[in-house]
Amino acid sequence: MLRSDKTLEDVIHKLVPKLQESEQKREREFCKRNGDTIVKAKEMVDMKRSQDSETEEPDAKRIKISGTDENFHRDDPQIGVCLECLGDDSVEEQSVRKLVRKYIRCSSRLTIAHVKKFLKMKLDLKTADQVEVMCNGEIMGKDHTLEFVYMTRWRVKEGSVLILQYRPRLDF
């Protein structure tokens, strides 16, 4: 599956003069030539969606958010994250264990709450509040974005992978 790389695209457009304009011109010409075909395909997709939505219950309908085509933050700046478990390996009954794959690449706009939900799903926890996510030994707030954590808490040179630790929540 190919994904667009917005940063690389921006660099190429700066290096190659008039490339972006020529691409847009070719795209407009293509739409003029194949406009009827494209419109018919869109109508078929819309018809299929309307048929699907008629069969769904009103509560289960999806809400489309202001023209987004389900981009899922692919154009956002990406960040590499390593999730390390800080649990005691000797305790077998521990609810929080090590991940099989501890490295992820995701949008820098992800919040710590998203990371907790990811850990909840991967570790089969009852609630996301069962884990604490830390950076350099400091517990991170759920509304912190990974970009914020990287810029303010991660004191390693630029371009390195952000290392976040997680452990079972400690209640006093």
UniProtKB/TrEMBL annotation:
Pfam families: RAWUL (PF16207). It is found in: Nucleus. Residues 102-167 form the RAWUL domain. It comes from the Eukaryota. Residues 43-62 are annotated as: Disordered. Its main location: nucleus. Keywords: Nucleus. GO terms for cellular component: nucleus. PANTHER family: POLYCOMB GROUP RING FINGER PROTEIN. This is Polycomb group RING finger protein 5-A. It comes from Stylophora pistillata.
